[in-house]
Amino acid sequence: xxxxxxxxxxxxxxxxxxxxxxxxxxxxxxxxxxxxxxxxxxxxxxxxxxxxxxxxxxxxxxxxxxxxxxxxxxxxxxxxxxxxxxxxxxxxxxxxxxxxxxxxxxxxxxxxxxxxxxxxxxxxxxxxxxxxxxxxxxxxxxxxxxxxxxxxxxxxxxxxxxxxxxxxx
Length: 169
Fold this sequence. Notes:
The chain has a single domain (10-148), classed as Rossmann fold (3-Layer(aba) Sandwich), CATH 3.40.50. Helix 1 (11-28) crosses helix 2. It has three helices and nine strands, in the order E-H-E-H-E-E-E-H-E-E-E-E. It is of the alpha/beta class.
């Protein structure tokens, strides 16, 4: 039996959402010299890279891509990062993921920066599902999607070898 999938965003719509998020980030940080874009692996990092590419073309500030790998099934924070967290001191950090569901992944991502005095910490997601169990909000979201808890959102990106799309199943 085939599983039914409902197309939420196609490739063009994803591009539009990411462009809008990039412009919102620009407006929020116009006076900055540099911002750090921290993507949660795997798809959050792909989205962060796309946002960086857009910002590099429109923003007067520079941006640097950081990667965070989280053990999402763990009950404690277990993160691998590709940077020295102290380099983030007194800088703006944008934490990026593909989907905000319960908020656990973003909460763990935020915890990476808890011991560092940041200038600003913002969150960006492509899809905000509104099923938060953790006190996490998004500053920049492509789409706020009201779903039932049993439904699943699949973000498929070109980096995965398929055409960009977001499905609800």
